[in-house]
C-alpha cells in the first residue's frame, strides 16, 4: 500500500520543503473518534486546525492515502489569491443567494489571504508568504478587451481601484517587463507561497494541537458515522469530512462528483540578478495573462520562475495515475510560453517539471457543506483556485460541525450541491473538446486580432457565462 515513488521527486516544492517526507504510521486498527477527515491536503488540515481551535477536546483524525501534501496542496503554483472559481454574477444567481451574498463571499475570499498569513506567523510556518499582489498582462487587442471588461465588472460589483486597476504599458513595466504588453491589471489581493512548506507546516501544527494524522491509509468508502479503509479497518465518528478534491472519483459512489483535470508546472534554475533586472517582478507579484487557456507564475524566494498551466488531457473514467503527472508536450509549451513572455530567460535552464490533478465540478462551482442529520461534510471543486478557498472551507467546516452559525456559514457556497458529470464516454469527449477549444481560441485570436467566437460559444459549458 502506498506509492512506490520517492515523495521528494514529486515536485520542486517537495524537494525543497525542508521537511522529512517519511510517511507517518498508518491506521492499524479500528477506532472511535469525534471527527474523521479523509484527505491530508489543505482542506482537511485547515478543517482539523480550526476544529481544534474551536474545541481542543475533540478527538480528530486525518486519514491520508500517501503523505500530507501529496496532492494539489503540495504541487500547485503557490498563489494565495482572492480568486473564486465562479464569477460574482454566477454566485449571485444561486438559489437563495443575492448580489449582497456574492459580495460577502468575495470579501471573505480577500480576508482568507490575510488569515493564512496570520496563521503562518502564529504557528511559525516559514512558507515564503509574501503579499505582492497579482499582475495580469494583456498582450493582444482581444486580451486587452477582456482586461477592460474585468475592470468594468469589478466596478459593477463595488470593487474600487484599490482592489483592481488597469495599468498603462509604462505602469506595467514598473512592475514586470513582459514582452508585447499593451496593458495589464493589478490587484493587491494575492500572496506568493511555497505550498509544500505551508502544507507540511500546517500538518505539524495540527499534530501539535492534538490531532492524529494516519498516512499510508487508503480509504475505500465514506458513509454516515463510518469510514472504511483498504485493510478493512473502520473509523467510527460523529462527523466525517470528505476533503479529497481531484482524488474523489476513487471513492465508492463518487465517480462522477468531480473530474480530475491535470495542471502542469515547470521551474527555472535560480536566475542571476542581471536577468531579474530585465524581468522585474521586484515585489514578487504572481503573474498571468488574459489568454483563454489558464497560465500562472511566480517569482520564488530562491530566485526562480515557477510557471504552470492547463493543456494536459482529461483521462477516460476520471483516471488518476502517476504517469499522468508528466506530459512533455505541455511542458515544452510552458517553457516556450514563458521564454516568449520574458525573453531574458533564453539560454537559462529549466530544472524541474511536474504536475497533478485538480478537481472540477460540473457547474464549475466550489462548495462546502455539512449535513447534521448524517454527520457527513465535504468541501472541494476549487478548479485550481484552492489555496485560499481551502482556508475558508476549513473555517466553515469547523463552524458547521460544532454547530455555530457565523458569517462564513451563511455564505452562498455553503451546502451548494453540484450536478454529477455525464457518464463516459460523454465526459471524456466533452472535457477534452473543451480543453482543445481553449487552445484553438487563443490561436484564433493571434491570427485574427479579434475575440474568439469559439470561446464565447463554449463559455457556458466551461463554467463561464
Radius of gyration: 21 Å
Please report which band the strand proportion falls in: under 5%, 5-15%, 15-25%, 25-35%, 35-45% or over 45%.
15-25%
Q: State mean pLDDT (0 to 100 scale).
A: 94
Main sheet attributes: strand count, strand direction, barrel closure: 8 strands, mixed
- Count helical runs: 13
Any idea what the shape is?
globular
Unreliably modeled segments: 461-465
Describe this structure in words.
The structure is a single chain. With 465 residues, this protein is an alpha/beta fold. The chain contains 13 helices and 18 strands. The strands form four sheets. Strands 1, 2, 8, 9, 10, 11, 17 and 18 form an eight-stranded mixed β-sheet that branches. Strands 5-6-4-13 form a four-stranded mixed β-sheet. Strand 9 and strand 10 form a beta hairpin. It has helices at 12-15, 42-54, 72-75, 88-92, 99-122, 141-156, 169-175, 195-208, 273-279, 328-341, 386-401, 426-448, 453-458; strands spanning 31-38, 60-63, 79-81, 134-138, 165-167, 183-187, 190-192, 212-214, 219-223, 226-229, 234-242, 259-268, 286-289, 295-299, 305-309, 350-360, 367-371, 376-380. The longest helix has 24 residues, at 99-122.
Amino acid at each position: 500500500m502506498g506509492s512506490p515513488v520517492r515523495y521528494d521527486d514529486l515536485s520542486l516544492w517537495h524537494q525543497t520543503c525542508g521537511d522529512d517526507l517519511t510517511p507517518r504510521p498508518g491506521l492499524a486498527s479500528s477506532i472511535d473518534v469525534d471527527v474523521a477527515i479523509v484527505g491530508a491536503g489543505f482542506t482537511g488540515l485547515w478543517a482539523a486546525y480550526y476544529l481544534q481551535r474551536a474545541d481542543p477536546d475533540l478527538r480528530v483524525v486525518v486519514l491520508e492515502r500517501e503523505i500530507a501534501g501529496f496532492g494539489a496542496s503540495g504541487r500547485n503554483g503557490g498563489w494565495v489569491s482572492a480568486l473564486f472559481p465562479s464569477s460574482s454574477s454566477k454566485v449571485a444567481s444561486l438559489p437563495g443567494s443575492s448580489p449582497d451574498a456574492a459580495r460577502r463571499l468575495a470579501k471573505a475570499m480577500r480576508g482568507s489571504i490575510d488569515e493564512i498569513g496570520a496563521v503562518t506567523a502564529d504557528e511559525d510556518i516559514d512558507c515564503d508568504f509574501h503579499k505582492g499582489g497579482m499582475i495580469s498582462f494583456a498582450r493582444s487587442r482581444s486580451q486587452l478587451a477582456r482586461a477592460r471588461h474585468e475592470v468594468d465588472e469589478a466596478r459593477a460589483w463595488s470593487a474600487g481601484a484599490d482592489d483592481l486597476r488597469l495599468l498603462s504599458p509604462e505602469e506595467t513595466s514598473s512592475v514586470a517587463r513582459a514582452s508585447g504588453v499593451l496593458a495589464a491589471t493589478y490587484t493587491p489581493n494575492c500572496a506568493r507561497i511555497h505550498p509544500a512548506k505551508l502544507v507540511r507546516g500546517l500538518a505539524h501544527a495540527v499534530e501539535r494541537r492534538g490531532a492524529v494524522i494516519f498516512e499510508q491509509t487508503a480509504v475505500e468508502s465514506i458513509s454516515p458515522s463510518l469510514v472504511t479503509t483498504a485493510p478493512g479497518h473502520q473509523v467510527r465518528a460523529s462527523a466525517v469530512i470528505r476533503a479529497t478534491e481531484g482524488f474523489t472519483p476513487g471513492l465508492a459512489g463518487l465517480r462522477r462528483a468531480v473530474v480530475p483535470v491535470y495542471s502542469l508546472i515547470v521551474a527555472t534554475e535560480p536566475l542571476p540578478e542581471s536577468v531579474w533586472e530585465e524581468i522585474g517582478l521586484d515585489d514578487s507579484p504572481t503573474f498571468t495573462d488574459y489568454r483563454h487557456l489558464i497560465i500562472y507564475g511566480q517569482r520564488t524566494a530562491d530566485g526562480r520562475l515557477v510557471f504552470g498551466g492547463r493543456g494536459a488531457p482529461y483521462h477516460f473514467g476520471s483516471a488518476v495515475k502517476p504517469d499522468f503527472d508528466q506530459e512533455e508536450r505541455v511542458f515544452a509549451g510552458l517553457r516556450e510560453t514563458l521564454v516568449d513572455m520574458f525573453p531574458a530567460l533564453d539560454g537559462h535552464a529549466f530544472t524541474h517539471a511536474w504536475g497533478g490533478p485538480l478537481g472540477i465540478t460540473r457547474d464549475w462551482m466550489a462548495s462546502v457543506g455539512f449535513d447534521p442529520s448524517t454527520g457527513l461534510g465535504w468541501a472541494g471543486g476549487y478548479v485550481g483556485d484552492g489555496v485560499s478557498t481551502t482556508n475558508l472551507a476549513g473555517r466553515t467546516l469547523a463552524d458547521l460541525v460544532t454547530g455555530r452559525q457565523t458569517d462564513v456559514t451563511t455564505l452562498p457556497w455553503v451546502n451548494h450541491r453540484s450536478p454529477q458529470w455525464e457518464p463516459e464516454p460523454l465526459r471524456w469527449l466533452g472535457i477534452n473538446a473543451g480543453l482543445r477549444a481553449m487552445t484553438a481560441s487563443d490561436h484564433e485570436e493571434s491570427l485574427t486580432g479579434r475575440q474568439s467566437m469559439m470561446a464565447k460559444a463554449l463559455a457556458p459549458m466551461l463554467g463561464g457565462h
